[in-house]
Amino acid sequence: MSAAVVCLTLLVCAILTWSGVAKLRAPGSVDRAMRQLRVPAPLAGRSLQRAIPWAEILLALALLLLAGFWAVVAWAAALTLFMVYLVLITRAAAQPIKVSCNCFGITSAPVTKWTVARNALLASGAVVGLITALTVPGSLLQHVFSLDASGWMLVFVVALIGATAFALGRDFAGGTAPSPGPKGPSR
After folding, report:
1. What does R_g of the chain's alpha carbons equal in angstroms?
2. For residue range 52-82, what is the model confidence (pLDDT) as tens digits?
3. Would you say residue 179 lies in a domain?
4. Rounded to an integer, what is the distance from CA 163 to the centroid of its chain?
5. How close are the terminal C-alpha atoms of the chain, in Å?
6. Residue ranges making up the domain that contains 123
7. pTM above the 0.90 mark?
8. Alpha carbon 67 to chain centroid distance?
9. What local confidence, expressed as pLDDT, does residue 136 receive?
10. Which of 79, 130, 164, 174 has its CA at a distance of 20 to 30 angstroms from the CA of residue 140?
């Protein structure tokens, strides 16, 4: 597996983990997202709402640790999840009213064409992961530990770019809470 594919698949795992943890930290965000995104009632039940964050985290672990047939199953599940998310986000972006997907908890910005692009890239990453799982033996974790120095450098650079994009995205999305102003006299 090439270092670039390792980076891409690690990025997909990181985003799934980040998303799941953010949703666990703000449990009501999944319910709000399902209402705002107009998810059909059979797919918006309470038990599914509670399961989504855990499923994202477990899916990230599966993508990282499984090999062979089970890796193919995990990547197919990731692709299915990302395609469902892409359909919901694309539909939301076409609405005249701005809604938030709460994809990353309550700090998520309203859905825009950039949200659609991000989800399309994640679905594309899952396609690459699925193709890789079908054609390259071994787990992602095995391939991470078999990288040479240049591969590790690429992982480091991609992680640095990802962290920078995350920080900038939070700033542009208003994800960082404004600091409270000085307190005035109380009455």
Report:
1. 18
2. 999 999 999 999 999 999 999 999 999 999 9
3. no
4. 14
5. 67
6. 3-171
7. no
8. 21
9. 87
10. 164
Grouping H, G, I as helix, E, B as strand and the rest as coil, residue 102 is: coil
Residue 182 domain flag = no
Confirm whether 40 is domain-assigned: yes
Instruction: Go through the chain and tell me how many residues it has.
Output: 187
Cα–Cα distance, 133 to 75 (Å, whole number): 7
pLDDT for 169:
59
User: Looking at beta carbons, which pairs linking 32-39 to residues 24 or more positions away fall under 8 Å?
Assistant: 32/100, 32/102, 33/100, 33/101, 33/102, 33/103, 36/92, 36/99, 36/100, 36/101, 36/102, 37/88, 37/89, 37/91, 37/92, 37/99, 37/101, 38/91, 38/92, 39/88
pLDDT in tens, 122-175: 999 999 999 999 998 888 888 888 888 888 888 888 878 877 776 665 545 444
- Residue 85 covered by a domain: yes
Q: Which tens digit of pLDDT belongs to each residue from 106-116?
A: 767 788 888 89
Amino acid at 10: L
- In sequence order, which residues have a C-beta less than 8 Å from that of residue 16 and are 6 or more positions away? 56, 57, 59, 60, 63, 78
Token digits of residue 161:
């770019």
Domain count, the chain: 1
DSSP H helices, 45-182, are 46-65, 68-93, 113-135, 140-145, 149-173
Query: Which among 35, 31, 20, 39 has a CA at the least distance from the CA of 87?
Result: 39
At 78, list the tokens: 């990731």
